[in-house]
Amino acid sequence: MTSPSPAAAQARAEAPGSKKFVIPPDLRWAVLFTFLTLLGLVVGLLGEHVLHSDAVMWGGFGLAYLAGGIPAGREALHSLFVERKLDVDLLMVLAALGAASIGQAADGAILLFLFSLSNTLQDWAMGRTKRAIEALMDLNPEGATVRRDGEEKWCELGDIRIGDLLVVRPGERVAADARVVTGNTSVDESPITGESRPIDKAPGAELASGTVNLNGSVEAEVIRPAGESTLARLVALMEDAQTQKSRTETLSERWESPYATLVLLAVPLVYAGLHSLGGLSTADAWYRAMTFMVVASPCAVVISPPAVMLSAMAAAARGGVLFKSSAALDALAGVNTIAFDKTGTLTQARMTLSHTYADDERGALALATGLEAHSEHPIAQAIVQAAQAQGVAPTLVQGAQAIPGHGIEARLESGELAWAGNLRLAQREGAALTPAQQQAVDTLSREGSSTVIVGVGPRVVGVMGVADTLRPGIAEAIQAIRAAGVAHPVMLTGDKREVAETVAKQVGLTEFRAELLPEDKLRIIGELPGPVAMVGDGVNDAPALARADLGVAVASGTDVAIESADVVLMQNDMGKLAGAVRLAKDASRTVRFNLLFAFGIILLVAPLAIMGRVPLPLGVVAHEGGTVFVVFMGLRLLRWRL
Fold first, then answer.
1. Which end of the chain is more exposed for a tag (fewer CB within 10 A), N or C?
2. How remote is the C-alpha of 263 from its chain's centroid?
């Protein structure tokens, strides 16, 4: 095996998009206003019920009304005068003012705080599209060394042209799609294709932008400009997928304007009807109309989804599943199909010695370790780690030399030439495999394992298989996901069909698609029975994660996958996903029940308020009692264990 430089190892280990997350200014302001609203509410209640101080009470409530009402009022006026529609923002502000006008300032302050909290949570969830695209762009280097007109020079990314020769050294990222002209190397393509093994590159092979050169300097001719590269296409796919997904987020707005319009039209009609037709005095008619507005204000309706979802999200986070928004939790409840990436999702993306075929297995492993100890290649390190785990001491060798694209060779103390590498190296050394050894090579190839042939001179000592290992308990996790109500689990991978088939059988999946590019995954997501969740970890999964009804990432994945996903498995434990599905279904049922209850209270109490059968204190009790009840129903989800 060839040995990557320390820079290559560092580049492979570093996660893309590692910039420190900075809270956007708009979100900081939203958090500040929500905090000030809560502070004003608490101070006002203390002044009213504990200190019995009008100054403290009105000072606190005044702060709550300003901090909670100004942002909502600004949005309401924008919707009214720019978008020409009424929305819940306007209704909330007017309901709060109406409560204050009849001496119930606390009720209005509570309403404003709950509404402010809900909006802040929405703002927090909205910034991930931009961060996901920025994380993708972090894979692009700032430029590259280019040989142009016989001279080497550094070029900015935008200055690289078709026909330029990229000089790609060990540890560097490929700046543009190119074709190798001179040199041999191995390339880490996992960020783009999901391929779990380093890929050998020889003259004529293509290099994709964003991949990492592990060893060996190569010169490659640029075949596409940076703006049309593989990485640029991924960014475009991401933007398109996010746009398509955002259409479903408009569903919650459909009821908002009609409800606000209905209530706002009803309040003056109630007042006019009671005053003109009912013969009530101006004060009495106004009192009943304001009581109606307070009762009809959707406080319980607004707080019910956040109360349930936040409790469920907290329970999930305690179990190691992070939901980025309540919409993600709600989406998981209805998922019919879950598509799993293979490398790094079902598997650990870590090479491990899986098979050893030799008459003397420990002797073959000792020889292979003695050779591979001089290499930093992932396959070589897998062999070394296996020997350490089994307590096998390496055979002493001298003058180890890497042979790019083939393997490694060195001299034994006896002077014989020992070697370890691929079939090409065995042929170069004049070694012939026995029928049993050839069968072992064929078996490993069918299973998708990397084959390492170990020999001394023309004699083959042993054949070893190195493969990506499955995550512990993954087969049981897939079975549990089915039991939780997900009808169609399927695997989507960029790896070879033989590898995909082997992994699918091992984890208990009956359906899989292999040798997929990011565009293929994106297309298949749209063809699977919906709603569809996508589980992945790599850059190549990012468009599919964004396009799916729900994106799920493992925490060990790339930053772009984590940013693109709606859900993150913080402990890389796929078994937690089944528990999250069950929790999401419970939360969805609770939200539906709470909304029916909240609207039922409004439909029952609002007419009684108009008739004068419900005085303001009783209306407040019904209104706030309903709010407390739906909050309690939500808080019970905190007891959930995934």
1. C
2. 39
Q: Which string of b and e fits 582-601 if b means at least 16 CB within 10 Å?
A: bbbbbbbebbeebbebbbeb
Active site residue 341: yes
Catalytic choice (87, 177, 341, 468): 341
The burial class, CB within 10 Å (0-12 / 13-18 / 19+), for 487 is: exposed
Q: Is the peptide bond between 615 and the residue preceding it cis, with omega within 30 degrees of 0?
A: no
CA distance 295 to 287: 12
DSSP 55-110: HHHHHHHHHHHHHHHHHHHHHHHHHHHTS----HHHHHHHHHHHHHHTT-HHHHHH
Quote the CA–CA distance of 312 and 589 in Å, as a whole number.
12
Burial 14-51 (b: 16+ CB within 10 A, else e): eebbeeeeeeeeeeeebbebbebbbebbebbbebbeee
d(CA 397, CA 411): 5
Q: What are the tens digits of pLDDT across the range 203-246?
A: 988 888 878 888 788 999 998 877 666 666 656 555 554 544 43
Q: Please give the DSSP secondary-structure letter assigned to residue 174.
A: P
Q: Is 562 helix (H, G, I), strand (E, B) or coil?
A: helix
- For the chain, the average pLDDT equals 82
How far apart (Å, rounded) are the C-alpha atoms in residues 332 and 567?
9
- Can you give the pLDDT at residue 90? 82
Residue 328 φ then ψ, to 5°: -65, -40
Instruction: Compute the distance between CA of residue 306 and CA of residue 290 in angstroms, rounded to an integer.
Output: 26
Can you give the pLDDT at residue 231? Answer: 65
pLDDT at residue number 420: 94
pTM of the model: 0.63
Token readout for 437 is 């050894």
SS3 272: helix
